Amino acid sequence: MGRLGGKIALITGGNSGIGLATAKRFVDEGAYVFITGRREAELNAAVKEIGANVTGVQGDVANLGDLDRLFAQIKQEKGKLDIIFGNAGITPMTAGTTPITPLGTITEENYDSLFNVNVKGLLFSIQNALPLLSDGGSIILNASIVASKGFANWSVYSATKASVRSFARSWASDLKDRRIRVNALSPGYIDTTPWQSSDVAEVRANIEASGSVPLGRFGTADEVAKVVVFLASDDSSYVTGTELFVDGGVAQI
Ligand code: NDP
After folding, report:
1. Quick check: is 157 catalytic?
2. Nearest residue (CA) to ligand 1, atom 39
3. Which tens digit of pLDDT belongs to each residue from 138-180?
4. Cα 15 to middle of ligand 1, angstroms
5. Quick one: pLDDT at residue 198?
6. Nearest ligand 1 atom, CA 35
7. Site to substitute for ligand 1 among 11, 42, 70, 90, most atoms within 8 A of C-beta
8. What does the mean pLDDT of the chain come to?
9. Residue 169, CB half-sphere, CA atoms under 13 Å: how many?
């Protein structure tokens, strides 16, 4: 029996990157995992890759009807949840815009796309799951180092992640009577799809050359996943409301 034996977990945005790596770790630790994502083909491929003890449910976290369908399915198939990793999110790169959005060039569309997924989608994917979530459960919210940094040109994305970090604090209080722990996880530069686009090759090269990462490299999705397992498991039984950085030290210098 692993550290998550018998637990039922939901990972929003589990068909690639950090979410997929975490789903694999959760299953290895004995959990049954529901993963979501908008892209059905990627979702099916992820389910196949994980292999067992996993169900993929296609849907958009920013669409409340999709969330209703998701929770109805989990209720019918498993009757409860013990762990929720609110991971689905988009970056300026995945939002189809450029990461370079200095104040003065931000559009309404840019703002809406980022806030709809990263804030509204996260809020309702946690709130609407609460009736299914066991007392004593664990919620992990994927924020980012940008929540506490002042990187030029990244203000809208950073503000979405500052909201995520703030939710962890408030919800840890809101849910204390049910002994549900809520923590934020703040990755630094992690080598997943958004950073693999040629559009950001120059930005990435500049980061790598700048020496701004004390550990000297981008992190891997699995290095983040291992920390999510810690926050999901009883190993972190006295940890709530906090923010755990998985960033090679970037946010500390
Ligand atoms: P990926 O692009 O690989 O993963 C994003 C995941 O979110 C995909 O599974 C995607 O699936 C899903 N997703 C996006 N929008 C929605 C939506 N509206 N509804 C449901 N699912 C959605 O990148 P990462 O793994 O890097 O990103 C995961 C999280 O980590 C994000 O919240 C990101 O902000 C955060 N993060 C990443 C960092 C990094 O350097 N990589 C650093 C700090 C934080 P689909 O497209 O099929 O919907």
Report:
1. yes
2. 190
3. 999 999 999 999 999 899 999 999 999 999 999 999 999 999 9
4. 9
5. 84
6. 9
7. 90
8. 96
9. 6
CATH number of the structural domain spanning residue 163:
3.40.50.720
Residue 157 within a domain: yes
Give domain status of residue 168, yes or no: yes
User: What domain range is 15 assigned to?
Assistant: 8-192+220-242
Window from 24-38, 84-98, 115-129 with minimum mean pLDDT: 84-98
Q: Give the model confidence (pLDDT) of 3-17 as tens digits.
A: 999 999 999 999 999
Report how many domains make up the chain.
Answer: 1
Average of pLDDT values for 90-112? 82
Q: How confident is the model at residue 75 (pLDDT cuts 50, 70, 90)?
A: very high
Query: Average pLDDT of 210-222?
Result: 96
pLDDT of residue 184: 99
Written in H, E and C, the secondary structure of the chain is CCCCCCCEEEECCCCCHHHHHHHHHHHHCCCEEEEEECCHHHHHHHHHHHCCCEEEEECCCCCHHHHHHHHHHHHHHCCCEEEEEECCCCCCCCCCCCCCCCCCCCCHHHHHHHHHHHHHHHHHHHHCCHHHEEEEEEEEEECCHHHHCCCCCCHHHHHHHHHHHHHHHHHHHHCHHHCCEEEEEEECCECCHHHHCHHHHHHHHHHHHHCCCCCCCCECHHHHHHHHHHHHCHHHCCCCCCEEEECCCHHHC
- Which residue lies with its CA nearest to atom 10 of ligand 1? 13
